[in-house]
Amino acid sequence: MPPTGKLSYEERKRGEVALSEFAEYADKQQAHRSGQVAPSDSRYSTASVSRDLEDHAELDILDQLGLSDAPHAAKLKELLLGTGDAVEDSLQVLAGTLQTRIDEGHGETIFDLGLEDGGESMGFDLDQWKTALQRLREAAETITAHCRVLLTYNVGGPEESPVTHGRVHGAWGKVLVRHHPDTIEEMAELRIAVVGNVDAGKSTTLGVLVKGGLDDGRGRARINLFRHKHEIESGRTSSVGLEIMGFDSRGEIVSNSQGRKLSWEEIGKRSAKVISFSDLAGHERYLRTTVFGMLSSSPNYCLLMVAANNGLIGMSKEHLGIALALNVPVMVIVTKIDICPPNILQETLSQLTKILKSPGAHKIPIFVKNMEETINTATQFVSQRICPIFQVSNVTGENLDLVRTFLNILPHRGQYDPDGAFEFLINDTFSVPHVGTVVAGVVKSGVIHAGDSVIVGPDSLGQFTTTVIKSIERKRIPVNACFAGQSGSFALKRVRRKEVRKGMVVLKKMDAPPKVYREFVAEVLILSHATTIKPKYQAMLHVGAVSQTCSVIDIDRPFIRTGDRALVAFRFVQRPEFLAPGDRVLFREGKTKGLGIVKSIDYDPTKPLSANAKEGASTSAPTIPHD
Ligand SMILES: Nc1nc2c(ncn2[C@@H]2O[C@H](COP(=O)(O)OP(=O)(O)OP(=O)(O)O)[C@@H](O)[C@H]2O)c(=O)[nH]1
C-alpha cells in the first residue's frame, strides 16, 4: 500500500493497542512498586501482553513477578550483608554472581542493590546499605571490576533520586559494576551514527558531550570536530566525522577528566568502554556521504538530532527512514530548548511522537526527563521498539548529564558472530608513511591476529589478493587481535593503496577462492518513485560499504512503483561483490528510493524469482520494517 501519510483503522488500532498496553504496563509497574497491587495480579501475566510488547517488557515483567530466580533471593541478602554461615566464602559467592551478570552484559551490569531479584525491598536501613555497598565493592575488586552508584532511594547524598514516590521502602540503589579490561582488546566498543538536519546541533552536541564545557549558541563547541578546513569556514559538516567518548571502569568520562583535550590513544588506554560517533552530514548535497556512513560504519545505534525550534525537517526524515531500514535502534536528542518558546517545543514533540508512532516507524517514544527514567530506558534499549527522547540545551547544559549517563550505560548489542569465519568489511583506505597501505573497517564475524595470512578483495575481476596483516590498531592503539563487532585498521603487507577500495572484504586465507556474485535476488520495498521501475532500470545500490550501480534484470511482476514490495534480481554493472543473504541493501536514483534484503546470491534465470528467493532464504533474513 502506498504510504499516504494517513493511518488505516487497523494500523491505528495496532499502534494504539501497543501504546495503551505499554502505558497500562507502566502504571501497573508503578502501582506494584508502591505496594498498591499484589505482585500475583493475573493481569501481569505475559500472555495478556501483546507480542508487540513482549520484546521489551517480558523480562521485566518476569522480574517484577519475581519469577526469574526467586529462590535465591534470600541468599542474596545474606551475601550482601555477610550474615550467612560462611562469611569468608560468601564474598567469593557474591563475586561469582557478579561475574555471571558482567559476562551476560558483555563487561558490565547494573545491580539493584537493596532489592531482591523479584524487585521487592530487602528493607535495608542506612547502615545495612553502606555495608552492602562496601561488600559489593570488595567482591567487584576481586574480579577486577569497579562500582559506581548511579541512583539511590532513601539513602541521601549526591545520587539520591529527586523523585520521591515511596514505591519501595528501605534504602536501595542502582549500581553500575563494570569490568576493568586487562588489555585494549577487551575494551568494549559501541558505534553510534549521528544524523539530523543541517543546524540541528549535531556537531555542537557531540563537542559538548565529549569535550565538556558549553556552547555559546554561535558554534563555539563544534570547532573541535571539523576535519576539513572548508567545513570550519562554511560551518557545514561534509565528511563522515568521527569523535570518541571513553568511560572508565568506575563509570567516569575519560575525555574530560583531566580538563584538557586527550588524544584518542590516551582515551582508549584509560577506557573500559568507548563510544565512537560518526557525525554524518546534514545537508541534502551530502546525502550520499550520509547513506554511505550509515551503512558502512555498521552502527549499533542511531542518534537523531532535532532542533526544538525547527522540528523534523528536510533531511532528518530521510535519515530516520534509513536508520529504520537498517533496523538500528534510534534515540532522539531535541536541542536548543533554551531558545525555543514552549508552544513551539510542544509542536516539535507532538510531531516527533506522531512520526515515531506511525506504522512506518512503529516505535514507542519515551520522553526521558530524570535519572531514574534514563537508567530504566537505557537498560531496555536493546529492544528496537522503544525510542528514548531527550530534550537538551548545549548552552545552559540542561539535561546533558542525563544523556552522558545514558551513553555511559548503553548496553552492548550482540549482532555479530564471534565464532563464525573471519570477515572484515573495509570502509576506508589509507596510505600511511613508513607503514604502507592501511584498511579500516568493522569485523563482522570471527577474530583476527596480527601476523595472520589473509586475502583481500574482490578486485574488478572478482579475484582476491593474498597478504599478511602486519599490524592492527583499535582507536589508534596497537593491539594484537580484533574481534567480531569491533572496528579496527590493518596495515597490509605488499599491497598498494590502489589495489584496495571501500566495500572490499578481508577474509582468512582459505583453500578455495571465496565466491563473489554479480547477480542476486533481493526483496525490496519501494519508498518513493516518480514513475515505475521495470527491468533494465539502473540505480546506485548500497550494501554495507559497497556502492555500485546495479541494473534490474528481473522482477516478480511487470513493474513496481511506490509502496510495492517485490522480489527483484539485480546485476552489478562494474564488478562482482562479496555478498551474503540477509545483507541489507538501499538503492537510490534521483527521487527513487528503495530498501531491501538480499534473499539469494545464486540467481538462476531459468527459475522464477520466488523459487530463487526460497533457495537462498534458509539463512534467516531479518524482516523489512513496515511501510
Ligand atoms: N541556543 C542554542 N544553540 C545551539 C544549541 N546547540 C547548537 N546550537 C547552535 O546551533 C548552530 C548549529 O549547530 P551545529 O552543531 O553546527 O549543527 P549541525 O547539525 O552539526 O550542522 P551541520 O554540521 O551543518 O550538519 C550553532 O551555531 C550552534 O552554536 C543549543 O542547545 N542552544
UniProtKB/TrEMBL annotation:
Molecular functions (GO terms): GTP binding; GTPase activity; translation elongation factor activity
UniProt cross-references to Pfam families, sorted A to Z: GTP_EFTU, GTP_EFTU_D2
Region (Disordered): 27-49
UniProt keyword list: GTP-binding, Nucleotide-binding
Polar residues: compositionally biased ranges: 37-49
Highest taxon of source: Eukaryota
Tr-type G domain span: 187-419
InterPro entries tied to this protein: EF-Tu_GTPase (IPR050055), EFTu-like_2 (IPR004161), GTPBP1-like (IPR035531), P-loop_NTPase (IPR027417), T_Tr_GTP-bd_dom (IPR000795), Transl_B-barrel_sf (IPR009000), Transl_elong_EF1A/Init_IF2_C (IPR009001)
PANTHER family from the UniProt entry: ELONGATION FACTOR TU-RELATED, GTP-BINDING PROTEIN 1
Family designation: Belongs to the TRAFAC class translation factor GTPase superfamily. Classic translation factor GTPase family. EF-Tu/EF-1A subfamily.
Designated name of the protein: Yeast eukaryotic release factor
Organism (species): Penicillium roqueforti (strain FM164)
Lineage: Eukaryota, Fungi, Dikarya, Ascomycota, Pezizomycotina
